[in-house]
Design a protein that fits this description.
Layout (H helix, E strand, L loop, with lengths): L1 H16 L7 E6 L7 H15 L5 E5 L10 E3 L5 H4 L1 H9 L4 E4 L3 H9 L24 E5 L11 E7 L27 E5 L7 H11 L7 E8 L3 E2 L14 E6 L5 H8 L3 E7 L8 H13 L4 E5 H7 L7 H6 E4 L1 E5 L2 H13 L1
Parallel strand pairs: 1-5, 1-6, 2-4, 2-5, 6-7, 7-8, 10-11, 10-12, 12-13
Antiparallel strand pairs: 3-4, 8-14, 9-13
Length: 350
């Protein structure tokens, strides 16, 4: 454990000295593995930037976790989750006007987003890029790059789950920390996610102490909300399941407790099927889901947006799944208007 802490400390020193990108880059990161809501917050920040600076040509750069493609790839609305990773594809389909790309090498990825003409150089490593014609980016949102040592973003936003205070957790494999909790001090802004709606000033001060923040280090609180389920296969959806009060829930996410709590207010969950986070669904997996559907013929089938993107990679889905499969949209929002105003002001200055 001591050696692990030493290595992480050295990585942090390297990160602090790393160069930045040519254009403003906003990193959405965390200290723990999974469960902080990076994708909903990336989407929230994209919405804010589009309102604050509509003239900006925005881009999102992700490593594309568990994708099968290699190197730099542009994500299109017609990409598959296996090609791009589930979260980049979800973001692209929600924001088709935003350039979304994946690259494990974030320095290369940022360079190509700012200078897309380099993709026309004829180099062998760039020949598989989906669409070489996209505008040079004015600002880049970096998904999960807080631990990437070779690039220092202009603004580092670190997310912390309300239910998982980092200083009471342990490093992997004994806990869920992927980095030293003291690295929270490197954040330009800290966001406590999945917070309750009824915060008071005492909660804020308590969290400043829990996180051991620097004097003046910005701290915000967001909550997770869900919208009404939408059909994954709109042209085949059976409208009768829109009114079903019983549901089957399947998902492959780090923590489904908040989603289940939300759904339980409206529906009776008759069966829950859990898969690992970022799980690539197989024919056997969907046969298992189809079995639940046949056991509960009047129940709607619900999943997350991220899971729905991965399900689309499955071939020859059972018609009974296609007719009743709905995704539950998730969004992050600030608990208080004052937080939204201050956060937006800092983004606009970038």
């Amino acid at each position: 454990m001591l050696i692990q802490r030493l290595i992480l400390s050295l990585h942090a020193r390297t990160w602090r000295k790393a160069p930045g990108a040519e254009v403003p880059a906003v990193c959405i990161g965390n200290i723990t593995v999974g469960g902080t809501g990076k994708t909903p917050h990336t989407e929230m920040i994209l919405r804010l930037l589009k309102e604050l600076r509509p003239e900006l040509r925005l881009a999102v750069l992700s490593r594309g976790y568990k994708r099968k493609s290699r190197g730099f790839q542009q994500v299109t609305c017609g990409s598959t989750a296996s090609f791009s990773g589930d979260e980049p594809l979800q973001i692209k389909r929600k924001f088709p006007e935003v350039t979304v790309a994946v690259d494990k090498n974030r320095v290369e990825g940022c360079d190509l987003l700012v200078h897309p003409e380099k993709l026309l150089s004829g180099e062998k490593r760039y020949r598989r890029v989906a669409d070489k014609e996209f505008p040079a980016s004015d600002m880049i949102i970096l998904d999960d790059a807080f631990q990437y040592r070779k690039l220092h973003a202009s603004c580092n936003i670190v997310l912390v789950n309300w239910k998982r205070p980092i200083f009471s957790d342990s490093l992997l494999p004994f806990g869920r920390l992927r980095d030293l909790p003291s690295r929270i001090k490197d954040a330009d802004m800290v966001v406590v996610t999945k917070s309750p709606h009824d915060l008071d000033e005492g909660d804020r001060e308590q969290w400043r102490k829990i996180l051991r923040l620097r004097d003046g280090q910005p701290l915000y609180f967001t909550t997770t909300d869900y919208d009404s389920p939408v059909p994954v296969f709109p042209e085949e959806a059976d409208s009768r399941y829109n009114y079903s009060k019983t549901v089957i829930l399947f998902s492959g996410i780090a923590d489904d407790s908040q989603l289940k709590a939300y759904l339980s207010d409206t529906y009776k969950i008759v069966e829950t099927i859990n898969f690992p986070d970022h799980h690539a669904y197989s024919k056997a997996d969907m046969a298992r889901v189809a079995g639940a559907v046949h056991r509960h013929p009047t129940a709607a089938l619900l999943t997350t947006e991220k899971d729905a993107v991965r399900v689309l990679d499955c071939k020859k889905l059972d018609d009974s799944i296609r007719r009743r499969l709905f995704a539950v949209p998730v969004r992050a929002s600030f608990v208080e208007e004052a937080d939204l105003a201050d956060f937006s002001s800092r983004l606009a200055k970038l």
